[in-house]
Amino acid sequence: MTPTELTSFLHQSIPLTQALGVRVSLALPGQIALTAPLAPNLNHHGTAFGGSLATLGILAGWLVLHHRLIEAGIDASLVVRHTELDYLQPVTADLLAQSELPEAQCSSLLDRLGRGERARITVSSRLCCNDADAVRARATYVALPRPR
Q1: pLDDT tens string 63-95
Q2: Fewer CB within 10 Å, N- or C-terminus of the chain?
Q3: Residue 39, class by beta-carbon neighbours within 10 Å (0-12 exposed, 13-18 middle, 19+ buried)?
Q4: What CA–CA distance (Å, rounded) separates 131 from 120?
Q5: What share of the chain is helix, strand, coil (3-state, %, to 5)?
Q6: CB 70 within 8 A of CB 1
């Protein structure tokens, strides 16, 4: 899927992404980048709201995995099981989240799903501000194979 197609999918499937102004700016095998404008994500300090940052971090990890499952032709339900976030500095510009799949874990996940088993994977994302890490997100996702 192209970045435009993935953006449309997000807006239709997760309406909050449209309200936050989320756009997919990069969609490569095992790699995703999301952007969102600062204005609809501001808090009372004039910086990005922590909830918006958390959403983007979790979403980047979820979407890179979702995209990989589509590429592999695997139909699975993908849910978030656990998240950890480290807020390193305030975000004062448009939001940018990047996520890359850990290939060894991804291969194992795809093998298990191919056998009809549920699988889990931990994916890290980073949110940047002015070329520096502002938030690090780490989430565990569970993939449940759908009956054929």
Answers
A1: 999 999 999 999 999 999 999 999 999 999 999
A2: C
A3: exposed
A4: 31
A5: 35, 40, 25
A6: yes
